[in-house]
């Protein structure tokens, strides 16, 4: 059952990426981030109201750090999707396990297994292989955004892990992240201008960005709560496969064999780094 939840989450995240890429032709990245947070807040907020769940928390500071880092990462990720091939943007975002593993070692002082540093090095070699033959000169800014989203995501995941250790429920973590994304995206949206009119197609895309995103988070949370972290982390990389299929079908985007070698190195290194730096097989993580 855990595998089904995780594969469902990966498919939903890939669907969100498709909506973002389609929506980028009509909306700015600031608009997409705002509506992603706003729609998700409405959905989670409705759940909270129906269940009459308490939003008060003694860990507001950690929620703010998680929310702000997640917001910045999301903004950079959406820019990357709009500027470079979807599979490349998704893969660069999924370098976050490599940076999270590094953060856990350097910041939290967690012990690691033999070969950990070699695994990280292999992952970063994969980044070089993915980028060098794939991107044109005018796409390097998008690549920087994609890699930056992976780096900053590791900070968000680190604080999500901390919130889990403090006993915060997953729905509350998702709610505050969504709300902070909407609040943080609003001034960016107003400053970016102009505000684009929302027609039926645009409305469906924005609902897709927010709806697929929050459903993916809930499915992933269910997977992590019901099974082993390593298994869930490994299956999470199926988002890369789903995104690659969508990119080939919708935009005829293809990667060279050297780029696919880079993708394989990043995925393999991410899974191995998760295995080498984890403390237990049952710790919970929320996107």
What does this structure look like?
This protein has 287 residues and is an all-alpha fold. The protein has one domain (2-277). The protein contains twelve helices and no strands. α5 (96-106) runs parallel beside α12 (257-277) and α10 runs antiparallel to α12. It is globular. Mean pLDDT is 82; it is low at 279-287.
Quickly list its features.
mainly alpha, 78% helix
Distance between the termini: 19 Å
Low-confidence segments, ≥5 residues, pLDDT <50? 279-287
- Gyration radius (Cα, Å) is 18 Å
Mean pLDDT, to the nearest integer, reads 82
Q: What best-fitting shape do the alpha-carbon axes yield?
A: globular
Q: How many runs of DSSP E, i.e. beta strands?
A: 0
The tally of structural domains comes to 1
- State the helix count: 12
Characterize the main sheet: none
Beta strand %: under 5%
Instruction: Encode the helix/strand succession as letters.
Output: HHHHHHHHHHHH
Structural class: mainly alpha
Helicity level: over 70%
